[in-house]
Amino acid sequence: MTLLLLAYFGGVLTILSPCILPVLPFVFARSDRPFRRNGLPMLAGMAITFALVATLATVGGGWAVHANQFGRGVALAVLALLGLSLLSTRMARWLTRPFVALGNRLSQRSAQGDGSVWAAAGLGVATGLLWAPCAGPILGLLLTGAALHGASVDTTLLLFMYAAGAATSLALALLVGGRLFALMKRSLGVGEWIRRGLGVAVLAGVVAIGLGADTGLLTRISLPGSNAIEQKLVDAVAPAPAMAAPAAPASDASLPIEGELPSLAGATGWLNTAPLTPAALRGKVVLVDFWTYSCINCLRSLPYVEAWSRKYQDHGLVVIGVHTPEFAFEKAAANVAAAVKRLGVTYPVALDSDYAVWRAFNNQYWPADYFIDAKGRIRHHYFGEGGYKDGEDVIRQLLGAAGYTNLPGGYVDPNAKGAEAAVAFGMLRSPETYVGFARAENFAGGAVARDVATDYRAPSQLGINQWALAGRWTVRPDDAVLDASPGGITYRFRGRDLHLVLGPAADGKPVRFRVTLDGKPPGADHGVDINANGDGTVTAQRLYQLVRQVDGDEERTFTITFLDPGVHAYAFTFG
């Protein structure tokens, strides 16, 4: 119930966002008609359609995206006809001749009556296909949950509650606007001009959506105030995990019992071991670490997990890494096996490509550590990076309570290098930034064309945390693919480190690239995957460290130019 209310209030707040502007003309086009027979069915159709389309878009794969693009095209055509029919009754009669039933409902020829409920609902369906709300914290939470947990009644219900909240705001605006229009028509006799004005507004909305303004310019100028309100609501329901864990309790008895170790049978495969079960692990202290090999936070915590395994494996500790993928390429067992070998992971790894183990733990974060005692009970958990000394204290407490003695002292110090080096806490860093349109933010290169090869040009100046494409790219939900070389990506970032998840061409052919910082070779500030001149090669689907500033975390302009076509770019992360 709490999540349903959160989703609803998130939708209500969309009225404050510029992304709602393109659909307002479609809503007000029938404001002169009774609300119960016109406004209400239209808004219901919009909410239901958005919930279904959003569910398919997050879990249905590429076919759903293409189907939605076709639906958007049909909806644009229908609403363009509506706009033209509003401009003049003569044009309305001409437009309705080829398709009398549909045309008569869309036109104003029935203005003297209440109009058709089904026509209003059809207009709502068209609006729902076109509506692309700005992805604030609440909608981002809902879409991420849908992608992780798959299609379900719960997923669709949450998305519908979000759309219902938006419909509530629009309903109030429609009720007020309808009365205002009626008053103007009675007092000034300007009904015909109001109708024509709405026709112009509808056509302007069609053009704005057709040009991508709803997902481009309007998204970038989204009111920060609504995002701040949404974030407060999210934090009130599920506070974000702290970066530093509280000190571990002094004794095993003071550690709470948080649940039982769930089944691991949902794993799609295992590396470094035969399949493990909770029954077989009884008598051992178990650390379950959720990770994925292109997650920078996971990579930075990995050396500590590996060090714990090596230090305590002969003293009763079993470490299990649960590899739950974020991107599609991380579901391939061969890719995970190669990453495990490259990263030097020696402990058992469960492949969780179907998210079964993730759901069994009710987990929500990468990385996430769960500490289980010798009786199979979860006694402690920790999300994110840091808190390694406290985590090791818990391991020792649980081992001691299980009867293991002569435990090695001190704390591990992996002294990791490259991308696995510990983050410098306290430094200002740019946020994780996705390149695929499903979760992209702060794009500064105009509107993003979804799933269509398009020529992009990066602006001469970028604001902090803004990024842009250059060259011919096809932007897909999870990544962007370079269709012709050369092409590049520019990002105005702040942080010590810059990483970019990349993959080679579809045929596996390596892709050469060159990096510059503020227009010059990186020199001593180069990352481990390039040289001082900025040269590197994409050979596998993984995270590449491209910048490691020697001194500080100053604001810099990063540019990567790909010399070969076919590269896949997924996400930026910073340290």
Mean pLDDT: 76
The amount of helix comes to: 40-55%
What is the number of helical segments per DSSP (H or I, 4+ residues)? 16
Number of DSSP strands?
17
The profile of the biggest β sheet is: 10 strands, antiparallel
The computed structural class is alpha+beta
Rounded to the nearest angstrom, the radius of gyration is: 27 Å
Report how far the terminal alpha carbons are from each other: 37 Å
Taken together, the total number of domains comes to: 3
Name the shape in a single word: globular
- Spans of at least 5 consecutive residues whose pLDDT stays below 50 are 60-68, 95-114, 213-225, 240-250
Strand content: 15-25%
Describe it for me?
This protein is an alpha+beta fold. It folds into three domains: 2-236, no CATH class; 252-420, Glutaredoxin (3-Layer(aba) Sandwich); 433-574, Jelly Rolls (Sandwich), CATH 2.60.120. The chain contains 16 helices and 17 strands. The chain has helices spanning 2-12, 24-28, 35-59, 62-87, 89-96, 100-106, 117-130, 137-149, 153-188, 191-210, 217-220, 224-237, 296-312, 333-343, 356-360, 388-401, and strands spanning 259-260, 269-271, 285-291, 317-323, 349-351, 368-372, 377-383, 433-434, 454-456, 467-475, 480-494, 497-503, 511-517, 535-538, 542-548, 555-562, 568-574. Strands 8, 9, 10, 11, 12, 13, 14, 15, 16 and 17 form a ten-stranded antiparallel sheet that branches. Strands 1-7-6-3-4-5-2 form a seven-stranded mixed sheet, with helices on one face. Helix 3 packs parallel to helix 7 and helix 4 (62-87) packs across helix 7 (117-130). The longest helix has 36 residues, at 153-188. The two termini are 37 Å apart. Residues 60-68, 95-114, 213-225 and 240-250 have low confidence and may be disordered.
